[in-house]
């Protein structure tokens, strides 16, 4: 890639475009505009697929539908060019796009707690750039606008992001693995480290052993959790779960009693922390009831497309158990993710600090 030849110009490249709910993605040539003020254009090197991409493709939430659209939000790439005002990223930097940005200037970004930037936080309704309300993608033949997805849009050879959603990483990092830090690994490990703040000797239960759930298990193991109970209806997840730290496996299909009762029995009253990673409201209730009365904490990580509300009675919170949500594992992307990436490279995430 000769950056001098493309800087400031429209780039024509290939992208996987979603034209409608459940319609096959079309690999086609698209035009990608140059980055505007406080924006960055990236050449995508590797991109992963997350279940959230699948949900957007199927259009399971009608209010969030926007087509045509370029999906994808887990990736790693190299900066092709930067727009006016960008000072922390330069051409040639290796970077990770993040769906939950950090401006560094708003009241949330300046607080120690909280990671939902007032301007660049994750927004599934957002489909254009912040600066001018326009997309940077267009069809080659008809110049029809193509919408963005989750601040990122990585199923393309080139993409444009707000600089608040771009994180610089070590160029020596194993790039094809770093894409997982854009969402899955950071979301799961961070939920255990930052949101729950799991301590050594704690007992945990992870509901749903997809990539996020497995990352939660790894995060709990790294913190020294004594028991990590994995819950999944797919029996093949047991082997993979054990590799990531799961100490016990429960398949709800094998039970003749409610799941929370079984977990309470084998733990002597419930776990200290539970993590709901599937986006299933009914399972959320089981996760909550699986925690110990007095101090149990349930962390919501899954995406919930259903209009149903929390399946809890207010009086159930009077026994000391709490429930909270976690976005991007509680990480502040630009200021904290580089350190996490370095820990992953060095293997030191297996002896992490108590708190970010």
Can you put this structure into words, describing what you see?
The protein is an alpha/beta fold and 356 residues long. Helices cover 23% and strands 21% of the residues. It has ten helices and 15 strands. The chain has helices spanning 3-6, 51-58, 107-110, 175-178, 184-195, 211-222, 237-243, 259-267, 281-289, 333-346, and strands spanning 11-17, 26-32, 39-48, 74-82, 94-97, 137-139, 145-146, 158-162, 166-168, 203-207, 227-231, 248-250, 273-276, 297-300, 322-325. The strands form three sheets. Strands 12-11-10-13-14-15 form a six-stranded parallel β-sheet, sandwiched between helices. Helix 5 (184-195) packs across helix 6. It is elongated and about 65 Å long. Mean pLDDT is 93; it is low at 350-356.
What's the quick description here?
About 25% of the residues lie in helices and about 20% in strands.
Low-pLDDT segments: 350-356
* Total count of strands: 15
Helix content: 10-25%
Order of helices and strands: HEEEHEEHEEEEHHEHEHEHEHEEH
Radius of gyration: 21 Å
Give keywords.
356 residues; 15 strands; six-stranded parallel sheet; alpha/beta; single chain; disordered C terminus; 23% helix; five-stranded antiparallel sheet
Architecture blueprint of SSEs:
Elements (H helix, E strand, L loop, with lengths): L2 H4 L4 E7 L8 E7 L6 E10 L2 H8 L15 E9 L11 E4 L9 H4 L26 E3 L5 E2 L11 E5 L3 E3 L6 H4 L5 H12 L7 E5 L3 H12 L4 E5 L5 H7 L4 E3 L8 H9 L5 E4 L4 H9 L7 E4 L21 E4 L7 H14 L10
Parallel strand pairs: 10-11, 10-13, 11-12, 13-14, 14-15
Antiparallel strand pairs: 1-2, 2-6, 3-4, 3-8, 4-5, 5-9, 6-7
Helix pairs in contact: 5-6
